[in-house]
Specification:
This protein has 488 residues and is α/β, with parallel strands linked by helices. It has 13 helices and 21 strands. A hairpin with a 3-residue loop joins strand 14 (312-315) and strand 15 (319-322). The structure holds NADP nicotinamide-adenine-dinucleotide phosphate (NAP).
Length: 488
């Protein structure tokens, strides 16, 4: 391939998206890139998250890069630390370490008219022709505003910033929140704690799944020796994922069947009618990000666990008081209260063309053309950005597809075809309208409150299937962009 110029690229974030972007650039012959990572190691959410019980509820065979299949996952649903190790191994295997700056937080990024100047917290700056923002969705822990939080004299932890030095065995622990995280944390803490009190504001449907099922050693050996079989298994998994996308995006008997299974999971495991009533959500299964567990209801039935569905009034020096006036004495409070999922790229000060800030552009919530391009921000692309398919399509694959799309633009820049590429307002608005229309029949739109929904009430997900996503990102669509040349 002949190149007339070599693009300089800054990738922000070394999680799944950043790694996918870096390897895609490299595989296309672009090596002048740096990955700026705020954390002390790669892995993104899998680096930051290490609470007890952390397990991925997406099968391991699908929770990996197509270009780096791992034959020997320990479990069908991999534990968190193993996923973090996998991502670190991929970084080593593809020689990304020399490109990586850890403990380096990007605080500013400004479009200069011809490219970007990216500033970090240690005072360094990087000049780039392109910026790829791979900053993650589940990054900023959400701390609820509960009265008395500062009064508590015991230990307070957020699951997304767990402190491994704080003991949990033999202690009285409150867990607040019942998303995927709260359910996993309660299941893991209960066997060793003296008492676990689970504060549940709105119950979730919890589908039974064998989360601790081992991957048989002989299968690992066979997949290692027969990479073609491993690839075939990955493709088979993709077909399974396709069925799941169909279930969540289109009403059908298949959706109803899965929903029935969710109801059955509760009925079969909780026989006490009072407890079952407390655990029954008032919305359709699958509306929120579905929780999977094979151990949560068992943990709840244990004598040292109590479910509290009465609202929290305040935190006191020694525990939590609920609105019925009851005081729950605890030594430790675990906030499994999720993330500020729509603060994507912030608090970074991102300034685009003509001084426009990302906060102004996204005043009504994050939005981007085909998940990746934002009007006013030339030569900047997001991977797993706004409207990404976090609820429906395997994420590594979505990141790879976006990374290939972005690389196609960079390739064209390298031949001198343009200096700055910027999506048009019209194209971004058209995409937004298509998304809103397609979200109508999705299960996410059946009347529940979840982290998928922005403060402005928009559902921040991709309502299309994998093929549609692949098609929309298969090649740059020139009609949707301004291609500018500068006179530098
Ligand atoms: P989440 O799904 O947003 O759940 C947050 C929980 O905290 C909800 O139950 C919420 O109750 C509760 N909460 C928030 N503020 C509260 C307050 N002031 N008082 C009482 N309860 C409060 O967060 P998450 O469990 O961390 O999960 C986030 C996402 O991370 C998941 O959906 C999933 O995508 C990902 N995740 C994946 C895995 C995996 O296995 N792959 C594991 C963990 C997390 P309301 O519902 O009433 O708001």
């Amino acid at each position: 391939m002949t190149m007339s110029r070599i693009p300089r690229v800054v990738i922000i974030g070394a999680g799944i998206s950043g790694i996918a972007a870096a390897i895609t650039l490299q595989r296309n012959g672009f090596h002048d890139f740096v990955i700026l990572e705020k954390g002390s190691d790669v892995g993104g959410v899998w680096h930051w998250n290490h609470y007890p019980g952390l397990t991925c509820d997406v099968p391991s065979q699908l929770y990996q890069f197509g270009f780096a299949p791992k034959p020997d996952w320990s479990q069908v649903f991999a534990p968190g630390p193993e996923i973090q190790r996998y991502l670190a191994d991929v970084v080593d295997q593809f020689g990304l370490r020399p490109h990586l700056r850890v403990d380096t937080e990007v605080v500013t990024a400004e479009f200069t008219g011809t490219g970007w100047r990216v500033g970090t917290d240690d005072g360094d700056s990087y000049d780039a022709d392109f910026v790829i923002a791979a900053t993650g969705v589940l990054h900023h822990p959400a701390w609820p505003d509960i009265a008395g939080l500062d009064e508590f004299t015991g230990d307070i932890l957020h699951t997304a910033r767990w402190d491994d030095t704080i003991p949990t065995a033999g202690r009285r622990i409150a867990v607040i929140g019942t998303g995927s995280t709260g359910v996993q944390a309660v299941s893991a803490l209960q066997p060793h704690a003296r008492q676990v009190t689970h504060f549940v504001r709105s119950p979730q449907w919890v589908i039974w799944a064998p989360m601790r099922l081992s991957q048989p050693a002989f299968l690992s050996t066979v997949l290692d020796r027969l990479p073609a079989l491993n690839r075939a298994l990955y493709q088979a998994g993709m077909l399974g994922a396709k069925a799941f996308t169909d279930v969540v995006t289109r009403p059908s008997w298949r959706r109803r069947l899965v929903q029935q299974y969710a109801r059955l999971s509760l009925r079969a495991q909780i026989s006490d009618p009072r407890l079952r009533a407390e655990l029954t959500p008032d919305y359709e299964p699958l509306c929120k990000r579905q929780v999977l567990s094979g151990s949560y209801y068992r943990a709840l039935r244990a004598p040292n666990t109590e479910l509290v569905t009465t609202g929290i009034d305040a935190i006191t020096a020694t525990g939590i008081r609920t609105i019925d006036g009851r005081h729950h004495d605890v030594e430790m409070i675990v906030f499994a209260t999720g993330f500020r999922a729509h603060d994507y790229m912030r608090p970074m000060k991102l300034t685009g063309r003509d001084g426009i800030s990302i906060d102004e552009t996204w005043a009504e919530g994050p939005h981007a053309y085909r998940m990746t391009a934002i009007p006013g921000f030339p030569n900047l692309f997001t991977v797993l950005g706004p409207n990404s398919p976090t609820g429906s399509i395997p994420l590594h694959h979505a990141a790879e597809v976006s990374a290939r799309y972005i690389t196609a633009w960079i390739q064209r820049w390298s031949t001198g075809e343009f200096d700055a590429v910027e999506v048009t307002d019209t194209a971004a608005e058209r995409f937004g309208t298509e998304v809103v229309q397609a979200l109508g029949p999705t299960v996410w739109n059946t009347g529940c409150n979840s982290w998928y929904i922005t403060e402005n009430g928009k559902i921040d997900l991709l309502p299309f299937d994998r093929r549609t996503m692949e098609t929309m990102l298969s090649h740059p669509d020139d009609d949707d962009f301004h291609l500018n040349r500068s006179s530098r």
